[in-house]
């Protein structure tokens, strides 16, 4: 059994996507209605039920006190407000807020492995998720879901549930998640011979398009790659999902394709990554200068006034979902994953808290900046669609495309769950990328050796 690994925070912000909009009576509207009724992940490995679920118990007068351990309060404070609208007599106390992420992870792991319950609910976002499953210190939430008739899996993004299911167990529920994407400059895609806008693209593909555009006469400038998030490290870490398969206990950084990616990364001008031009950090107007090849500003599309994923301009493509080159599409869980420690003495009330967000919360008419903030995509697909209707006002293309994005994700981000490993890999990467102390092949081999050590821990 692998021991849990202490996690510290990597400063890489995944870009947010959610899902979205209106209804009607035309043939197009009927298609849209059907979209909102069907399961989001028809090929899911999880069993789903089509029968109507039992009505939610009318017991809003339940009372008690819950503790939730997390170093972050921003989303949790807002989501707790929604819970208390229905259950005003349940007090939810956040503990650990403001703690350094490394200290939070270390302290929480020590408590869990010592047989203690750090709180009634624990935010696993900075803990080694698969290690938590293997250790058995958290309740198997799949069993709680299966045994509760109120919960309908076919109302949820079951592809997200699949991603956090390991050894037939689920230690934590990601109640809301983010997905990453980019917009590219049409001029350079055309110069690269790319017609139309791809639905998804990997970082190696984008580098290939960059070089094809340059070979076709496009002038490389410092602004080819812009944005504060998608610097070489974040792009590299996204592609890392292809070569590190923790569920299978396998690493393949010694595959020649990884060294090829490392080599290709040095063909790109990264001069602007420290001081990128701020006017490109927002794409509300979808206007991009001629020298911009890539922009990472697909952020929190449930924000008021945000440009829908499907919208494009004369210069900018519609948003393209970022994937690893093997098809892995990661998501970041920002509200959770949250789990119930086995040692908790308040399991039933803790489950009622989780169940509320799975099956009871209603977001019809909710706007993201009116009262309580929303940005990430709720795990409950019905809620995600309702929230989108409030934001995009009957834009059926926006809801359909964003729902597709949420339905494609298939792996929890390794950035927040394996940060110790990521820090070590980045140090090796810097020896190659910044300091020229390693060849691509030597860098790949060192990373492979470190990954294999991690898998044996």
Give a written overview of the molecule.
The chain is an alpha/beta fold and 457 residues long. It is 37% helix and 11% strand. It is built from 15 helices and 15 strands. The strands form four sheets. The chain has a five-stranded mixed β-sheet with strand order 6-11-5-10-7. A four-stranded mixed β-sheet has the order 2-1-3-13, covered by helices on one side. The longest helix is centred in the C-terminal third of the chain and has 17 residues, at 440-456. The radius of gyration is 22 Å and the shape is globular. The protein starts with 26 loop residues before the first helix and ends with a helix. 50% of the residues are buried.
Radius of gyration, in Å, reads 22 Å
Secondary-structure-derived class: alpha/beta
Order of helices and strands: HEHEHEHHHEEHEHEHEEHEEEEHEHHEHH
Mean pLDDT: 76
Strand content: 5-15%
**Helix content estimate:** 25-40%
The separation of the N and C termini measures 8 Å
* DSSP, total strands: 15
Q: Give the overall shape.
A: globular
Q: Stretches where pLDDT falls below 50 for ≥5 residues?
A: 1-32, 34-56, 226-230, 272-292, 299-304, 369-373
Strand order of the largest sheet: 6-11-5-10-7
